[in-house]
Design brief:
The structure holds two protein chains of two kinds.
Chain A: H1 9-18, H2 23-35, E1 43-46, H3 48-64, E2 74-78, H4 105-112, E3 116-121, H5 161-168, E4 174-179, H6 185-191, E5 194-197, E6 217-222, H7 225-235, E7 265-269, H8 279-294, E8 298-302, H9 310-325, H10 345-356, H11 359-372, H12 377-399, E9 404-408, H13 424-428, H14 435-440, E10 444-451, E11 457-464, H15 469-483
Parallel strand pairs in A: 2-3, 2-4, 7-8, 7-9
Antiparallel strand pairs in A: 1-3, 4-6, 5-6, 5-10, 9-11, 10-11
Chain B: E1 8-10, E2 13-26, H1 65-77, E3 85-86, E4 89-92, E5 102-105, E6 115-119, E7 127-138, E8 142-144, E9 153-155, E10 162-168, H2 175-192, E11 204-213, E12 223-228, H3 231-250, E13 258-263, E14 268-274, E15 284-285, E16 292-293, H4 296-304, H5 310-319, H6 325-333, H7 335-348, H8 354-372, H9 383-394, H10 400-413, H11 417-424, H12 432-445, H13 447-454, H14 460-471, H15 478-490
Parallel strand pairs in B: 12-13
Antiparallel strand pairs in B: 1-2, 2-10, 2-11, 3-16, 4-5, 4-15, 6-7, 7-10, 8-9, 11-12, 13-14
Classes of the chains: A alpha/beta, B alpha+beta.
Domain Amidase (chain A): 29-473
Catalytic activity (chain A): L-glutamyl-tRNA(Gln) + L-glutamine + ATP + H2O = L-glutaminyl-tRNA(Gln) + L-glutamate + ADP + phosphate + H(+)
Protein name (chain A): Glutamyl-tRNA(Gln) amidotransferase subunit A
């Protein structure tokens, strides 16, 4: 495959600007790579026309001297973002055939910044899953394989598994993801790339298919911290159409990148040391602390005492919101409709939703309906909200002492597809390190730290104060520079 | 609080009726509560539906500040506690008129807390009715069952329109009190401008909670009759429902807590849904919306923009302008009437003439509008022209009789009264020379009657007045005619 597909966002941007290559050439190389990678099942829809048109516009802009921040950069779009004229399904049959007439706030900003779209990326259905196996259109297969001739198909992580696989396989230099409880960070860790979930409210939720409104947050995924910063600058910003959107200026994060952590304090939360964690992850975590120390930071032990309650609270709050958010998929106005002979309205709803939603989505709708129902609401939902407040307080107290927190991103490397698909609880445990910061709405990012014994990537997570994406990116950059992670999957697809 | 003596006689003695009302009032606003779509009544079906109202994927609600402002002003007008921190909750259920699958409402933390309304039921002492709360919520769409033989259609124009749900305490004890409450509430809403109060178009409708008990006994089980859309129907529904409950209880039955519907054709209520198949609405805070926090500047603006309300206005009309209780009542009941009357007073520019103006509005203007089947809104006479007309009476240019004539011409032609008087020569004559001359002619033409009068037939005075006025085509100043006739006859 062409050299151009090895380039990152900054390199493409700068190369187009310098005239080293045309945006058209970059787009064509990526279109070709996408077309040749069907075995990964990363794309649900390919949109070569979109990316080529954006590339031509970029080349014209270069001639006219009007290049934009992402001119000539081809990106992938998670299928959770509504895109005008391009089918948007959230990887669910219930939205099959739905073609929005409106552009999501995030994709609109990216296009306004000059980016072109290669296509819509596969994902866990309605962003519910950690392996991509809940997609109604077949799971994505990770481009990574274990060493030693083990050809087991591996999970690319989830829910943004199409995004992580496509970036790791050099089908695109960057992509959008969304993160409700770890859906950007865990797939980034599984595939050896970077991804940041910004502070809740940084990126507009308008036009993004909702999973759990109080947690959903879009963010970028890419192969470097710098590329994440560039993408996030384009994606973030106030959107008056989203009442939870943050009314705050978007900092120049790329310009502010600085791997010198002198004077910074990094907290190591002791509650993140879980029993079942493989020794390699523990070792990487220690190595990460040393790297940050080497970059000038002081390492401090901190306690986040309510961490162990985060996962149960999350699996009450997120399904509760989802059970209500997904009520609109009733077969009346768009997507799939099942109308058995003689069915009345309620029967049509039931048949449509039974046929349209996958088993994991149904499971969460049922959990959510249960925890909100009369007589259980206080015991579950109200209690979970109390836990959420305590978790936020834990973080507040920790951030009174330190600037960022360092943790592993996930408790394991990528697992084989099928390994956990019969055991929802084992699957939910993937989120154990990512969920607390989601509940608190804090910015958090995963950066590749190294490979495990099987040759699979492992990620380290940086969690920061609300609104301090810069601090997170800077610590991430320090990790990136010290880790010197250059591994990439061998092409087998 | 004075207690009404309203009782319903049953086989086992007298029963008392206990009534609470939940009034849904559509908030006057150009845009819906969360979507920005238009709200005008009578548009083509589904012409006023945004992507948000249709619950398209990824669409989000954003609160419309004007709707919140109107609800806060309403709360202030009802002397209610305004909660500076409130929150929206989702009420979840599936139905074809509810595209989101949930209604955004306020269960746990309503915008407005406790307040009250003073009512004056017909023929009863004034009474204070407690308001429990006002919350803001979305309306649903409308199902249309008469468009197709086998299908039902859905019109989402109303979906997402802002409603205030104004919940009273169970403080009413008779249909008359309930009627007075709805009328008074409607009047206040229209003064505030937060709801047009149009019950026929569905801008205001009431859920009627009724229970019965023996006087002094604890509250009985209540039923809720939904969506009653006129004052008359509210009263009829209560009367019927109370009687039905008494019949059930006296036959040894029990009242089932249930939702009922009022059938205005039959004048009866019918069971719609009983407690067993009640929904579990799974209320929870809407995670798409932040809590609503109101700052002092916003509250100050709401307070400052409140108009004088009907009770205060009525007191001022009586105490400040000297109007009778009846006139003050009539002129303040509807905001349009008061507005028209005050425009007239402003044109007159002299409050000492307010009583005459009030009398004229109530007897002459209302009478004419009634006859013409028109309302004040499309009155053919403006306050300015009315002021001119009353001015012509006050300065003696027109007699009351002439004024009536001029008013009739105004109604017919829409011309200004001074123009009419000028063009048609309807001016009253106060020229004593002219009057004396005509009286002289009348007296000499009726010398026999003059003799009779002077001989003691006092009653003939009216005859001379009539003859003089007739000879002057009704335009003589009647007071002067009287005065001169007396002088010339007796002198």
């Amino acid at each position: 495959m062409s050299e151009l597909t090895n380039l990152g966002v900054a390199e493409i941007r700068d190369g187009v600007k310098a005239g080293d290559f045309s945006a058209r050439e970059v787009a064509e190389a990526h279109v070709e790579a996408v077309a040749a990678a069907k075995a990964l099942n990363a794309f649900l829809v390919e949109t070569p026309d979109h990316v080529l048109a954006a590339a031509d516009a970029a080349d014209q802009a270069r001639a006219a001297g009007t290049l934009k921040p992402l001119s000539g950069v081809p990106i992938g779009m998670k299928d959770l973002f509504c895109t005008v004229g391009v089918q948007t399904t959230a990887a669910s049959h219930i939205l099959e055939g739905f073609t929005p007439t409106y552009e999501s706030g995030v994709s609109q900003r990216l296009f306004d910044a000059g980016a072109g779209m290669l296509g819509k990326l596969n994902m866990d259905q309605f962003a519910m899953g950690s392996s991509n196996e809940t997609s109604a259109f077949g799971n994505v297969i990770s481009p990574w394989r274990r060493g030693g001739g083990d050809n087991a198909a591996l999970a690319p992580g989830g829910s943004s598994g199409g995004s992580s696989a496509a970036i790791a396989a050099r089908l695109c230099p960057a992509a959008t993801g969304t993160d409700t409880g770890g859906s950007i960070r865990q797939p980034a860790a599984f595939t050896g790339i970077s991804g940041i979930k910004p502070t809740y409210g940084r990126c507009s939720r308008w036009g993004t298919v909702a999973f759990a409104s109080s947690l959903d947050q879009a963010g970028p995924m890419a192969r470097s911290v710098r590329d994440c910063a560039i993408m996030l600058e384009a994606m973030a910003g106030l959107d008056p159409r989203d009442a939870t959107s943050l009314d705050a200026p978007v900092p120049a994060w790329e310009q502010g990148l600085n791997a010198d952590l002198k004077g910074k304090k990094v907290g190591i939360p002791r509650e993140y040391r879980v029993e079942s964690m493989p020794a390699e992850i523990d070792a990487l975590w220690k190595r990460g602390a040393e790297w940050l120390q080497d970059a000038g930071a002081e390492i401090v032990d901190v306690s986040l005492p309510h961490t162990k309650y985060a996962l149960p609270a999350y699996y009450i709050i997120a399904p509760a919101e989802a059970s209500s958010n997904l009520a609109r998929y009733d077969g009346v106005r768009y997507g799939q409709r099942e109308l058995p002979d003689g069915a009345n309205l309620q029967e049509m709803y039931a048949a449509t939703r039974a046929a349209g939603f996958g088993p994991e989505v149904k499971r969460r709708i049922m959990i959510g309906t249960y925890v909100l129902s009369a007589g259980f609401y206080d015991a579950y939902y109200t209690q979970a909200q109390r836990v959420r407040a305590l978790i936020s307080r834990d973080f507040d107290e920790a951030f009174a002492k330190v600037d960022v927190l360092l943790t592993p991103t996930a408790p394991s490397a990528a697992f084989a597809l099928g390994d956990k698909s019969d055991d929802p609880l084992a699957m939910y445990l993937n989120d154990v390190f990512t969920v607390p910061s989601s509940l608190a709405g804090l910015p958090a990012m995963s950066v590749p730290g190294g490979l495990d014994d099987a040759g699979l990537p492992l990620g380290l997570q940086i969690i920061g104060r609300a609104m301090d994406e810069q601090g997170v990116l800077n610590a991430g950059l320090a990790l990136e520079q010290h880790a010197g992670f250059t591994a990439r999957p061998d092409r087998w697809w | 609080m004075s207690e009404t003596s309203y009782r319903i006689e049953g086989a086992t003695g007298a029963w008392e009726v206990v009534i609470g009302l939940e009034v849904h009032a559509q908030v006057t606003s150009n845009a819906k509560l969360f979507s920005g779509a238009a709200t005008a009544f009578g548009a083509e079906p589904n012409a006023q539906v945004s992507l948000i109202d249709a619950a398209m994927p990824g669409m989000l609600p954003v609160p419309n500040k004007e709707c919140i402002r109107q609800a806060v002003r309403t709360g202030m007008a009802l002397d209610a506690v305004i909660n500076r921190w409130s929150r929206f909750d989702r009420k979840n259920y599936f139905y074809a008129d509810l595209p989101q699958g949930y209604q955004i409402s306020q269960l746990y933390h309503p915008l407005v807390g406790e307040g009250s309304i003073e009512i004056e039921p017909d023929g009863d002492a004034p009474k204070t009715i407690g308001i429990e709360r006002i919350h803001v919520e979305q309306d649903a769409g409308k199902l249309m069952h008469d468009q197709h033989p086998t299908r039902s259609y859905v019109d989402l124009n109303r979906a997402g329109v802002a409603l205030m749900e104004i919940v009273s305490r169970p403080d009413m004890r008779s249909p008359a009190e309930a009627g007075a409450y709805v009328r008074k509430l409607r009047s206040i809403l229209r003064y505030v401008g937060s709801c047009d109060g149009n019950m026929e178009e569905g801008s205001m409708r009431a859920d009627v909670n009724v229970s019965v008990r023996k006087p002094g006994a604890p509250f009985g089980t209540r039923t809720e009759t939904k969506n009653v859309n006129s004052v008359r129907f509210v009263m009829a529904a209560i009367e019927h429902e109370a009687r039905r409950q008494i019949d059930v209880l006296e036959a040894g039955g029990t009242i089932v807590q249930e939702t009922r519907l009022f059938d205005p054709d039959q004048g009866v209520t019918r069971s719609m849904r009983s407690k067993e198949d009640a929904h579990d609405y799974r209320y929870f805070p809407d995670p798409d919306l932040l809590p609503l926090e109101l700052d002092e500047a916003f509250l100050a603006e709401c307070r400052d923009s409140l108009p004088e309300l009907p009770d205060a206005k009525r007191r001022r009309y009586q105490e400040g302008l000297g109007l009778s209780a009846y006139n003050a009542d009539v002129l303040t009941a509807e905001v349009e009437t008061a507005r028209w009357f005050e425009a007239l007073l402003a044109e007159i520019g002299d409050d000492s003439r307010a009583k005459a103006a009030a009398n004229w509005v109530i007897s002459e203007l209302f009478g004419a509008l009634n006859r013409l089947g028109r309302s004040l809104d499309d009155s053919p006479v403006t306050p300015k022209d009315a002021a001119t007309l009353l001015g012509l009476v006050a300065d003696g240019t027109l007699s009351n009789t002439l004024a009536k004539q001029v008013f009739e011409i105004m109604l017919e032609t829409g011309e200004a009264p001074d123009v009419i008087v000028e063009a048609r020569g309807l001016k009253q004559t106060s020229d004593t020379g002219e009057i004396d001359r005509v009286i002289g002619e009348v007296l000499s033409a009726n010398a026999d009657k003059v003799a009779d009068y002077r001989g003691g037939k006092d009653k003939l005075f009216g005859f001379f007045v009539g003859q003089t006025m007739k000879a002057m085509a009704g335009k003589a100043n009647p007071a002067l005619v009287n005065e001169r006739l007396k002088a010339l006859l007796d002198g």
